């Protein structure tokens, strides 16, 4: 009988973006906070654009799946 391995604790994997955020220093003055705010707004806009793109891609994939299923259904109907 094979011996069971002990579960090992998984280390969290940091993506480059997470690592970059973790290395950002906290601003010390109002100008720094404003710059940080603008950077975060820019990141948020990028994330929202990516979400829109991913939703459009998901809709496209679902439409293709529907098309394939309809095609297979019509093939089965024609075969009988």
Describe this entry's structure for a reader.
The protein is an all-alpha fold. It is 71% helix and 0% strand. The chain has 2 helices and no strands. It has helices at residues 16-22, 30-79. It starts with 15 loop residues before the first helix and ends with a helix. The model has no long low-confidence stretch (mean pLDDT 85).
Provide the β-strand percentage band: under 5%
Distance between the termini: 52 Å
Molecular shape? elongated
Order of helices and strands: HH
Number of strands: 0
Flag low-confidence runs: none
Roughly what is the average pLDDT, rounded to an integer? 85
Number of helices, where a helix is a run of at least 4 consecutive DSSP H or I residues: 2
Indicate the structural class.
mainly alpha
Helix content range: over 70%
Q: Describe the biggest sheet?
A: none
Task: State Rg.
Answer: 25 Å
Key structural traits:
mainly alpha; elongated
Topology:
Layout: H1 16-22, H2 30-79
In short:
The protein is mainly α. The protein contains two helices and no strands. Helices cover 71% and strands 0% of the residues.
